[in-house]
Amino acid sequence: MSDHLLEHVRPYLGRDREERIAYIRAPRWIGHHVAQDSHRRLAELLERPPSLRTQGLMLVGPYANGKTMIAERFAVEHLRAAPAQKVWMVQTREGAGLGHFYASILQALRAPGGDMWDVGRKAEQLDHLLESLKPKVLILDEFHNALRGRARDVEAVFAFLRRIGRQYDISPVLIGEVAVCDFINATSEMASRFELVAVPRWQYDENYLMLLDSLEAALPLAKSSDLSNEPLARRIFSLSEGLIGEIVTIVTKAAVAAIGSGTERISKASIDELRHVPVSKRRNAALRESLL
């Protein structure tokens, strides 16, 4: 009866309802082909020899498609295995100019005074930290936030990225929307320093069907749902618009509902009952219109 589940998931069928739901809702790593390739490319940055002109990566794709999770998983795995932390992850702040950008990095490095106004003092503090901590890879999540200022502000940020490679042997990794790729490739100087790792929307193909099979095997429902069956797989794909974050959200909500209803399986009808609105249609969703 539980042959459709992974071996370590099967014992959860004997747990109470709350435990099963908590397990289903917990974040989970999905080691799909793009994620595995991204980790390989990130590992190459750690293993490279010292250089005065370091190469970096751009991890680019649409919102809700797993870019941040890929980077966080890599950073955590490195932290567990390495004697010294060489990978640091930064949440790039909204706001133009070096002040906001420096503050993002100072906060990630757990430095005091990240909110001080003097940009020169921030730069000095940041140089001191980079010299002492000696990171090898600096991951800048939502880097498109740093690209919304004036042209001279953006160029100052790019100059900083070039300098940390030359001065501190750091490879920057830029995570964000397609605007990141456009800005980097606007000049040959920056384009030559960054390689693109694309995290595109999923296509309806064998890889997508395998993803659904792996999700089903990880969710402790007593009955097989056969998520990769054509009508059900098509419905999930249509609602998710090929975004892995949306795919996982839809399947997770349907699995929780299956436990609550006692059906113990996901069906096309139960997916429809979620009334999930695709990302592209939320601006004009009926519920939103009722608020006007």
From TrEMBL:
Q: Which domain of life is it from?
A: Bacteria
User: Which protein is depicted?
Assistant: NTP-binding protein
Question: From which source organism is this entry?
Answer: Rhizobium altiplani
Family annotation (Pfam families): TniB
What does the organism's lineage look like at the top?
Bacteria, Pseudomonadati, Pseudomonadota, Alphaproteobacteria, Hyphomicrobiales
Q: Which InterPro entries match?
A: P-loop_NTPase, TniB
